[in-house]
Structure formats: C-alpha cells, structure tokens
Design a protein that fits this description.
Length: about 230
C-alpha cells in the first residue's frame, strides 16, 4: 500500500463512528473536479507513510477510536489491500472503504471475506458518460458489476455523487437513480472548489444551485430508504 496521508481523528468520514482516515496514493481515474490531486497525480505525491507507522498509531488508539476509513486516491488498485484491511480488522476496528467501483473483482473479495463494515462507492455520472467524466477508459460493465455487488451484499453501503454545475444536471441524477434502482442509501455531495483540484480550471466552477438541489430532493427523497444532500 502506498499511503499518502493519515488523518488521526474524524467525526464525519464514517457515519456514526469516530474514526481515523487513511489516504492512499494513486488513482486510475482523472476526474477534473477531484480535490485530492496530491493523491491522484504522481507529480504532486508527497513522501509515502510507512505502513508500520500507521499500525503503530492505530495500536495506540485501540479502545479510543471506533473505526478506520480507507480512502484515496483509489484503494482497490492495490493488490495487498485485503491483507492490509485484515490487519486493521484484527485490531478490533470497524472498517469503511471508499471506492470508485472500478475493480469489482477486488470488491467481491473484500465483501466475501467480510473485511469491510461499510462501503461507499462514488457514482461519477450516468453510465454512458463515465469515460468522459473520469478521463479514463473504464469498462461500464465493471461499474455496473460493482453496483450489483453492493446492492446484493449484506454490508451497509452508500452510493454518492459529487455534482458540478456544467457537468451534472437534474436529468443526469435521475439517470443515475435508474442505474442504482433499489439501493438503500444515496447521497448527493455539492461541489466546492479548492486549491488542490486535479484540473485547476475547475476553481471557477461551482456546485448546483439551491433551487436545483431542492428540486432533486423533492423528486428523490422517497425513492431511497436514506437520501442525503450534503451541500
């Protein structure tokens, strides 16, 4: 695992749990609005943190922290992810994985081995727009397979979409909802520009307007067991 960052305390990254957050370096997507370029673009990578340093920290927080979140970047690009997760589970922590869903084979392994207690999968766009939005040649079938795996699993999960004005529309969200039909939990995250964007041109972009978010909420609030708008 290439670890690019460690947040030692968070109350928002794992629903309902106080957690630490581990950030991996490397991603197979190039979403222009991503605000973690230091974890996505190799030219911005910082010195990696040694795994044992992370485990020493977690050992010191046993009984104090409830959970650990593994995010990125994209964790599932690392073949040793299951072993890394297993070590954390054996320390008694609840474990949440954030993923873009591009590696359903790895996701299936994690689900089958019960290595995650919560999985959050980003749905970047309507399925026909994935290559355009992610700047990759990702197979649509892989994304659909990952969606199915989560919906069929016994593990709590969340689908979520970061919405950007000019990239996403009200009708795009409706298309995504059709793709994830039957999901229990879906979250809309409104985009806010930052200094660490993958594409600096997006510093002038914004999220959807309040009126658009209200329209989306009115349409979708009864379609999922949990529908969330994070503005």
């Amino acid at each position: 695992m290439k670890i690019g960052g460690l947040q030692k305390f968070s109350m928002i990254d794992y629903p309902g749990k106080i957690s630490a957050v581990i950030f991996v370096q490397g991603c197979n997507f190039r979403c222009p609005y991503c605000h973690n370029r230091e974890l996505v673009l190799p030219e911005y990578f910082r010195r990696s943190i040694d795994e044992e340093e992370v485990f020493e920290f977690l050992k010191s927080r046993q009984g104090k922290l409830e959970g650990v979140v593994i995010t990125g970047g994209e964790p599932t690009i690392f073949p040793d992810l299951p072993d890394f997760m297993h070590r954390i589970k054996m320390m008694g922590f609840y474990l949440k994985l954030d993923t873009n869903g591009s590696n359903p084979e790895m996701l299936e392994t994690i689900i089958d081995r019960r290595l995650a207690d919560f999985i959050a999968m980003d749905i970047k766009a309507p399925i026909e727009q994935y290559s355009e939005i992610t700047g990759s040649q990702i197979s649509k079938e892989k994304i659909l397979k990952s969606i199915s795996l989560l919906k069929e699993s016994k593990i709590p999960y969340e689908f979520r979409t970061t919405v950007v004005s000019g990239l996403h529309t009200y009708f795009d969200i409706l298309k995504i909802c059709t793709t994830i039909n039957g999901a229990e939990r879906y979250a809309i995250q409104n985009f806010h520009p930052s200094e660490n964007l993958v594409d600096e041109n997006f510093k002038t972009k914004s999220g959807l307007k309040k009126e658009e978010l209200e329209k989306i909420n009115e349409k979708l609030k009864n379609r999922f067991t949990q529908f969330i708008i994070r503005n």
